[in-house]
Amino acid sequence: MKKWIVVIIGIMLFNSVSAENGYDLWLRYKVTDNAVLLQQYRQQITGINCTCSDGKLLAAQQELQQGLTGLLGKNVPLQKLVTNGTVMLGTPAQLPFIKKSVGENTLTGLGDEGYLIRSIRHEGKNIILITGNKEAGILYGAFHFLRLLQMQQPIAQLNISSTPAIKLRLLNHWDNLNRTVERGYAGGSIWDWQRLPGYRDQRYYDYARANASIGINGTVLTNVNANAMILTEPWLQKVAALAAIFRQYNIKVYLTARFSAPVEIGNLKTADPLNEEVRKWWKDKADEIYSIIPDFGGFLVKANSEGQPGPQNYQRTHADGANMLADAVAPHNGIVMWRAFVYSNESPEDRFKQAYNEFKPLDGQFRKNVLVQVKNGPIDFQPREPFHPLFGAMPQTPLMMEYQLTQEYMGFATHLVYEAPLFTEVLNADTHTKPNGSTVAQIIDGTADGHSLSGMAGVSNIGSDINWTGHPFGQANWYTLGRLAWNPALTPAQIANEWIRQTFTNKKAFVDTVQQMMLASREIMVNYMTPLGLHHIMGYGHHYGPAPWYNKAPRADWNPVYFHRADSTGIGFNRTASGSNALAQYQPAVRRQYENIATCPEELLLWFHHVPWDHKMKSGKTLWEEMCEKYYRGVDSVRWMQRSWSRLKNYIDEERFKQIEQLLGIQEQEAVWWRNACLLYFQTFSGKPIPAKYEKPDRTLEYYMELNFPYAPH
Ligand code: BDP
What CA–CA distance (Å, rounded) separates 546 from 544? Predict the structure, then answer.
């Protein structure tokens, strides 16, 4: 009887330990489940030595102690004296022996945020040294060290050094002051403005830890469709409370600046950037902000786009607007990130071309502390876009990358889509703007044009859901942003591998299967949503589901029909010289490749060409047959993901297993919806049958066209 009770209690305990809700992200620090390795780790790591009382070093020490204690399954103490197996933290200024042991040159190369992790002999003991010129580097080094253990890597002979390639590694929250999140699918905003500054939620600390662990060093707290109120004193006090928490994790806060703020909250008659009173208002505002938040990062601005106010309201240029703000924050070393996502309400010009047309002529006119933030593609975060033609076109201006982590156009927080392949596809694209290499990565990391300011931002997918991102795999996209901004040369496979091992388990069968799913998932989504270069054919407003037929938006370039241009002769947007000639915005080498239908990559075909339905594709199929093939393959591949996942039940906790299983189920239904709706609609133009070998759509086009979703999140 007693025995049974013990067993039952044991099972209950085991289950409660193993249930996971995803809150811990990739920082789970579970005890190493490889007995041999665990034994080794316990010998190799005996304690932590750190002369740290506050700030980033203290954060590093706390994280190490928490992490190592978890991973080793025993208390890892703080030590005053070093012993064999001490993990020692400190800067060369604190620990003079480091300079001799490591060498000046190595240290110089680390910059302000880089780190070194080395197994060395010190005072006759074998220790592990984690150092950097500044405390921030040590914090990042501590997280790297923990990652090694979480990934069950050997730590006997460590000699690791790392520095970030990109300076500003940022999240952009599209969070409103009422706690709704624009394009947010993971609950409300995590910023509890009402209870700030007095109440400091544990979430803020865990958010900061997660970001620091992947190298993210800045966060824009507020929506680009900005509210001027955030710039008033009571709200700045709330921001200051967050900044105080984040500072310890080397994270600066930034805010979005509403261009009309001087009128809305400053009682001025104008927001003209050349008006002296306006300029003074912003200078005073910046001084006030910095008096409250001394390390405030600066402003992110969306101006004269989608109805937002901007300098053009006063016949001034984007450079005039950006420079005014840049002058205001410059005395405090602040920066301005001015977004290039602009297209005018009036212009009949192809929307693809408008950002380039606006910004290229301004190259050279921006202040030194301005970056122009450019979305990865020319339209708007579509499942696949060609790289934005501005990359490489403004050599005198640091261009910052803007990706979208939140899956506005990629199935919300319901579809499993790993975005790293999308991100790296853009980074690796060659702009051909320099003879010796000018990939997008080289443009944005500043090396192509010798800029010391550089940046990469991701529009956050974080919300108040217990697992932060709604879909457990959304966490991988957040993870990717940080890792890629640190090192744009990492591959999607490397990043996925790291993330899976830390987030779920190191068991090979699980890691291999999930890695395959993740790497394939982006192309799978392209196939069932927008194959062959289709783009912007989703539902109007909320952007949920397919609506290629939609043509009632208040502006032409919000309508799917504007983008796909299907008719009885074919489909696609002619952006060659005989069409909108958007291709002229690329360098000749790129332009020539894309404008020739024979050399244009088929995955981008309908971005640039209006193609006859009978056009012969490389496969030998007609365009119509190929399109059917892609849509059907997309759905089949989701089913393959479902089958793959169903085999993994015994590898992880039931909670997350079931969540993902259910989400894949919805993804399958929605993939079928996309496939059927798009093919039935395009069929009305192609006039051709869906080949008989495929399963028949089980609904009519009318059915799909009548669906409507008044409460879909947007
Ligand atoms: C679009 C979104 C919209 C954003 C806009 C932007 O639909 O909600 O405000 O981009 O980036 O993707 O400014």
Answer: 7
> Rounded to 10 degrees, what is the CA torsion of 515, 520, 522, 526?
-170
Token reading at 543: 């952007």
**DSSP labels for 174-220?**
-B-TTS-BTT--SSS-S--TTTTTT---HHHHHHHHHHHHTT--EEE
- Among 173, 227, 302, 380, which residue has the most ligand 1 atoms within 8 Å of its CB, making it the best to mutate? 380
User: Using an 8 Å Cβ cutoff, are 405 and 474 in contact?
Assistant: yes
- In short, whether 506's Cβ falls inside 6 Å of ligand 1 is no
The reported pLDDT for the residue numbered 17 is 40
Distance 287 CA to ligand 1 centre (A): 30
CA 343 to chain centroid, in Å, comes to 23
Q: Can you tell me the distance from the alpha carbon of 49 to that of 282, in angstroms, rounded to the nearest whole number? A: 46
b/e per residue, 237-259, with b = 16+ CB within 10 A? ebbbbbbebbbbbbbbbbbbbbb
Which atom of ligand 1 lies at the shortest distance from residue 409's CA?
Answer: 12
* Per-residue burial over 40-78, b = 16 or more CB atoms within 10 Å of its CB, e = otherwise: ebbebbbbbbbebeeebbbbbbbbbbebbbbbbeeebee
> What pLDDT is attached to residue 617?
98
601 within 8 A of 590, measured Cβ to Cβ: no
| pLDDT value, residue 634 | 98
How would you class 675 by CB atoms within 10 Å of its CB: exposed for 0-12, middle for 13-18, buried for 19 or more? buried
The reported pLDDT for the residue numbered 52 is 84
Average pLDDT, the chain: 96
Distance (angstroms) between ligand 1 centre and the Cα of 411 equals 16
**Two tokens at 142?**
């501590």
Q: Are 61 and 94 in contact (CB under 8 A)?
A: no
Mind telling me the catalytic residues? 306, 380, 408
Residues 6+ apart with CB under 8 A from 361: none
Low-confidence ranges of the chain (pLDDT < 70): 1-18, 345
The residue type of 304 is N
CB distance 504 to 510 below 8 Å: yes
Question: What domains lie within the chain, and their CATH numbers?
Answer: 22-162 (3.30.379.10), 168-490 (3.20.20.80), 527-573+610-706 (3.90.1330.10)
Q: Cα 518 to the chain's mean position, in Å?
A: 16
| Contact indicator for 148, 155 with CB cutoff of 8 Å | yes
Please report the pLDDT score of residue 438 as a whole number. 95
What per-residue confidence (pLDDT) applies to 2? 54
Nearest Cα to 537, choosing from 684, 379, 389?
A: 379
